[in-house]
Amino acid sequence: MNKITLFNTGKVFEIRSGQSVLDAALDAGILLEYACKTGRCGSCKSRLISGKTKLLYEETSLTSAELDEGWFLSCSRTSFDADLEIIAEDLSGYPIQKPQIFPCKIDDLTYLSNDVLRVSLRLPTGKKLSYRAGQHIDITAAGGLTRSYSLARGISSGGALELHVRKVGGGLMSNYWFSEAKSGDLLRINGPKGTFFLRDVGGLDLVFLATGTGIAPIRAILEDLNRVGELEKPASVSVYWGGRRLQDLYLDKSEFKEGVNYCPTLSRGDASWDGPREYVQNLALMHGGPLSNVRVYACGSSTMIEDARLRFVNAGLKPEHFIFDAFVPSF
Ligand SMILES: Cc1cc2nc3c(=O)[nH]c(=O)nc-3n(C[C@H](O)[C@H](O)[C@H](O)COP(=O)(O)OP(=O)(O)OC[C@H]3O[C@@H](n4cnc5c(N)ncnc54)[C@H](O)[C@@H]3O)c2cc1C
Fold this sequence. Notes:
Elements: E1 2-6, E2 11-15, H1 21-27, E3 45-50, E4 53-55, H2 64-68, E5 71-73, E6 77-79, E7 84-87, E8 100-113, E9 116-122, E10 136-140, E11 146-150, E12 161-166, H3 172-180, E13 186-193, E14 205-211, H4 215-225, E15 236-243, E16 260-266, H5 280-287, E17 294-300, H6 302-314, E18 322-326
Parallel strand pairs: 1-7, 14-15, 14-17, 15-16, 17-18
Antiparallel strand pairs: 1-2, 3-5, 3-7, 4-6, 8-9, 8-13, 9-12, 10-11, 10-13
Helix pairs in contact: 5-6
Bound molecules: flavin-adenine dinucleotide.
């Protein structure tokens, strides 16, 4: 067993041989940022101060400059027979439920657009999934195929488990959802997972960026945002949702309640579209003022997230104030 010291908090935890730094922290009850756990999304980017690490997964979301500066992904590395000192954001102050495995059944399947399906799931009687709005679950279908999907409803919905699934051409799970799935199918869920949930919001300007089904966890967050006490209320809430065509904006604008500055945008809208034709990140930066009071929550394609992060940070946003969930493909 080796030890890891979280340099920024002084917390110390143990790591087993071959275990990822992230899993070692989670096992010790220390919540570090994470999402995909396969080295692809970059949510668990951390910094190595001392010690040697060994690669478990290729860190595809880090640039060579970041690797040279000592950045690493906590999901992708274990210790190389040495104690480690690292810097990583500690979210333990936001308690979350440990992931659990449940059987579930498909309750309903409804097309929200040509290529987005709303999947409603039902847990066995008496079982309830406890989660923070914004988190995702892993779903396993017959045959063992597993993919991650964000929960599209907040806990204030009374436990409705709803997913928004986009069809990916040639995708294995997409083929199941869009060609084979039917009400009553038995599936397995493992969750809640990830750390895409609201941090403190009191007095802050919240900027949500979404592409496609990236709106699903943001919709859940907005639903639960109505529950926060008056003292903790954000100063403002803006939602920038982008797609290529009109059908990509598959939720009615009435979903975005009064008090939310809702800004839909299309990159390839047809002649009937009289709204903006900008990427969400560009539109948000055009509208915004100083970034010191802003917290950005971005979800959807990794292309949008990488570009948005770069642009917001270059414009003065602190990197830790850009929270994201990238819908990266599985292996
Ligand atoms: C944390 C997390 C949350 C997610 N939440 C959602 C969600 O709420 N809704 C949702 O629709 N999806 C979500 N995804 C994506 C989802 O898990 C699957 O990756 C997606 O449904 C494709 O699976 P598939 O089996 O159909 O395709 P696969 O068989 O895995 O892939 C088929 C081909 O398509 C490519 N591909 C796969 N996914 C994408 C993509 N997103 N963009 C471009 N190319 C792709 C692959 O590289 C491969 O070449 C999430 C992913 C993560 C990591």
